Amino acid sequence: MNLLLDTHTFVWWVSGETIEIGARALPLIEDPDNVVFVSAASAYEIVFKHRKGLWPDIALLAADVAGEVEAADFTELPVGFQHMQIAGNLVEVHRDPFDRILAAQALTGSMPILSADRKLDQFGVQRIW
Questions:
Q1: What CATH number does residue 82 fall under?
Q2: How many domains does the chain have?
Q3: Looking at the chain, which terminus has fewer C-beta neighbours within 10 angstroms, N or C?
Q4: What does the DSSP 8-state code read for residue 103?
Q5: Dihedral, CA atoms, 46, 50, 54, 57, nearest 10 degrees?
Q6: Residues contacting residue 104 through CB under 8 Å, at least 6 positions apart
Q7: Residues spanned by the domain of 28
Q8: Residue 96 main-chain phi, psi, to 5 deg
Q9: What's the pLDDT tens digit per position in 65-104?
């Protein structure tokens, strides 16, 4: 199964804070038969929020997001024009641009997003937590 990690889920995984990850989501990440994607939008969100001082404890991750994706044996999901067009057309119920892009990628790829953020449900994505 293809799965998309929400940015927080990826941060918790890399930080070893798997206790924060939902009971339904964690075994899916750990299952070697699943392909786990991390969006390029998450890389931007991680670096941006770290630089702004919103995530001060993730300096190592912010310095090498691609390396951490590779070390976790996850797969990078590039952001394309189709993702951005869909994100731009999503209803205005949730304005966070990072979440809108992730929702668009989940919808485009017909894959669930592993996230604690219930606001994503308003976009019609399949959210597992």
A1: 3.40.50.1010
A2: 1
A3: N
A4: H
A5: 100
A6: 82, 83, 84, 86, 87, 90
A7: 2-128
A8: -60, 115
A9: 999 999 999 999 999 999 999 999 998 776 789 999 999 9
Phi and psi angles of residue 89, each rounded to the nearest 5 degrees, phi first: -95, -5
Q: What is the DSSP string of 6-75?
A: -HHHHHHHHTT-GGGS-TTHHHHHH-TTSEEEEEHHHHHHHHHHHHTTSSGGGHHHHH-HHHHHHHTT-E
Contacts of 13 (CB under 8 A, 6+ apart): 5, 21, 29, 72
Q: Rounded to an integer, what distance in angstroms lies between the CA atom of residue 114 and that of residue 28?
A: 9
Q: How far apart are CA 95 and CA 91, in angstroms?
A: 9
- Report the distance separating Cα 125 and Cα 88, nearest Å: 15
Predicted TM-score of the model (pTM): 0.94
Tokens standing for residue 91: 């209803």
